[in-house]
């Protein structure tokens, strides 16, 4: 062993190399002592006033040697006391505080020794502890199942328990770290740290010099993530009194906190509030670090050198002088002794430093460092294989205990399936969980081979794990359990997995809002097949429950999670099909309600039914209908589970019907349903004038064109909204601004009185009437109506030229951004205060782009959109349309242009003709030869519009061709009854006449009535 520092003389005495009376009033020698110990040292620790060793005597018995010392007011030794403690239980490690020693037995029990007692006493009832660490007056312990306990002084929050007692003598669980798979705990003066398996660092306690690395000097009463160390692959943390050192897998050392004695190694005495690389050690690949009270050691194994820096007044730097040192320099180890020795472990504490060695031939034998290799327990193939093979043996109770321990611990599960390929788990971030879900899938598939084992796992997860999950977990690693559990639920059948899936959904929804957003971010990045598994877990249980066609208390949590997964799917780079979320059983419920309505109507016309029977049946139907409708009302909050057809059924069968029933006797409602007379030439002005005069907008819009006698039973309205959209399109730049590079429309910035409100009212009426008004709005409008935020992608659709410039800015390298010389202005408007003087840089360009998008799509048209939105709500006075997704709402209002022309012929029916008649064959021959534009014109002639809402597409549209009986058929033109989708076709004598008459009719007959 090499030993240097304040207690060098005392250490010599412990090993019989100094005079027995040489301890009293002795000062430290500034030399490095090499001691050939007769007993094997397995561990040592140093505190302010105590040094302790675990060593084995010649008889093989384990012994703890402890040196206690007292100092005068100047910090000089007054006396020392050496004691030896024989422990019946084998010890794994120890740690020293100011004046106490914490011992860790091999079986995981924690003991404590003080100067006044030579018998170690138990600390609390902790068990299966794998690491212990002491600060000046507090202690930390970590169990193999990831539980952290703290006790002692808490004056600066060093226990991490939040506000509370200033001191506690019994260990308390640090619940805020539950779920984090930990690799190390450590403690310094009045601060503590925990290190995760993926290199995340969490600190708490005193922070007066920045020793927590959080960029400030504010104490932390609970663990806080040191975010600037993320992705650095941290493998070790060591704490001094008021400074901290961190080591990465690549051998890079970061230090932060107090630099008063140069203990940070930055050639400075300045404090550092954030981790800073020790530049002098760059490229040396440090393999171990250790912090004393005010000094730091770094071991470079490849050079066989120990570097030291910081306070050296007691010789703890090993540089043969007693001065401080602010840069790392090698410890002066005896070359004669280094040659045949392999340095394996370094230690520092108080004002002392140590290096444990072995002869080269015996290196790596017998040494035990509690800081290395004692991690949170992981579930592996070997354990699963043993459970499966021995579950029918006498070992079952032991296996049950193990299953309970593993599957009740989120930390164990989160540690078990790390993606270690190329150290990917060290890349854990908000966009990468660091977990390999394929490993979880294989593990749970193997568990499923034994139902007995799987059932036990399920019970533990349901009764212990899920209720214990923290609603405010710290760090991304604690969120892995929410990605892993769907792989377990996947192997459970729906019947046995319903209860646990419901509990899992409730646990997800218990998460605090910001943590739920973290989970949603992770969902958005996992591979498709695992994301699909998560969706199917909730979908299958929901679908099974829905077969009951009854309200179930589990619906809200299951559906809400499904809706959140759907929202995530919309943001994923690769989306799974939306029908993955649809629950087909909903249609059964809707049909059941429709049947009840039909039965109620039939009862009114059923003869010979006595009044009591009638009333009783009506009452039964009402109760059943109300139950069904309550269930359906619940569903409208979760639009992802309904396909478009079901949403339309709900909207027009229930919501709008309810409006009509509730306002049917209202005089205003009757007035709103009166026919609106419009002239084709002044249609927009007529419409706006009529709407201004209305005091109520609840009813459907009925239209009649001036000098045309067509009756509005749906077809005239379709024509009206088509002409309205065309006329508004001609009024360029008055109400709507048309972007030439996309052909899409947006609001003008002009300040009109009520045109935007009226425009919104017409659009709402179109939705209410199930009509199309194609004003060529982009998807952004419908996102805004549904309360969704807009992004650069939305601007790309509306104004691709402008958006491409912003995308170019985002794609530029740093030098390219600086060269563009852009300020925070848009069309002479400041995007931020004093924006004309703020340059766009690499750091703030994303903010600039977001502000430009917000200005173009939101702020510049805020009043116009607010008026439009108000009118839209009044035009379609129900919240049910909010069930639609933006794309669905867009199609409902603007119609589809995905024409399936062959479906029109397949669905056609005939009156007065047969499909084999020559006139019918000729008609379809002419129609087939039409251009796409002519076919669309024919569709307008037949239906009143060339764009049909979803649900009334050509695949579902049934046209009737009827015989327009006349003696001189060749003298007549075809007619269309748009309300009934009927084409009145004369029986022309030839295909040429049919083609001529049909083409003329569809291109020139734009009025309703006889002609």
CATH level 3 topology of the domain at 667-894: Hect, E3 ligase catalytic domain fold
**CATH level-two architecture of the domain at 667-894:** Alpha-Beta Complex
Provide the CATH superfamily of the domain at 667-894: Hect, E3 ligase catalytic domains
Q: What coarse outline follows from CA principal-axis ratios? A: elongated
Helix content: 25-40%
Oligomer category: single chain
Biggest sheet features: 4 strands, antiparallel
Number of helices: 30
What radius of gyration results from the CA coordinates?
40 Å
Instruction: Supply the helix-strand structural class.
Output: alpha+beta
Strand order of the largest sheet: 2-1-28-27
Average of per-residue pLDDT values: 84
Describe this structure in words.
Keywords: Repeat, Transferase, Ubl conjugation pathway. This protein is an alpha+beta fold. Among the domains are: 381-572, no CATH class; 586-642, no CATH class; 667-894, Alpha-Beta Complex (Hect, E3 ligase catalytic domain fold); 901-1004, Hect, E3 ligase catalytic fold (2-Layer Sandwich), CATH 3.30.2410. It has 30 helices and 38 strands. The strands form eleven sheets. A four-stranded antiparallel β-sheet has the order 2-1-28-27, covered by helices on one side. A four-stranded antiparallel β-sheet has the order 3-4-5-6, with no helix packed on it. A hairpin with a 5-residue loop joins strand 5 and strand 6.
